[in-house]
Design a protein that fits this description.
This protein is mainly beta. It has one domain: Roll (SH3 type barrels), CATH 2.30.30. A three-stranded antiparallel β-sheet has the order 2-1-6, with no helix packed on it. Strands 3-4-5 form a three-stranded antiparallel β-sheet, covered by helices on one side. The two termini are about 20 Å apart.
């Protein structure tokens, strides 16, 4: 099971690497920018449909307990 701190570490790493978050319902989200995820204690909010300057069209809320795996975007 993942913790908020683990996700935050991925986002704030000095050499950020894009990754994919997979959820228990089969959904997955590509995280290509460290600014597109807001981490809470029990859930995350992912910005979807980013424009050229990084402004999201909408947000998706995901419970951290529903995350089944996180992998590098290149490996996905």
């Amino acid at each position: 099971m993942f913790k908020a701190e683990q996700i935050r570490e991925l986002l704030t790493a000095k050499d950020f690497k894009p990754f994919v978050i997979h959820l228990s319902d089969g959904a997955h989200y590509e995280i290509t920018n460290h600014d597109m995820v807001l981490v809470g204690r029990n859930d995350i909010h992912i910005g979807i449909g980013l424009d050229q300057v990084g402004i999201a069209e909408r947000f998706v809320r995901c419970a951290i307990m529903r995350i089944t795996r996180i992998e590098d975007l290149q490996a996905a």
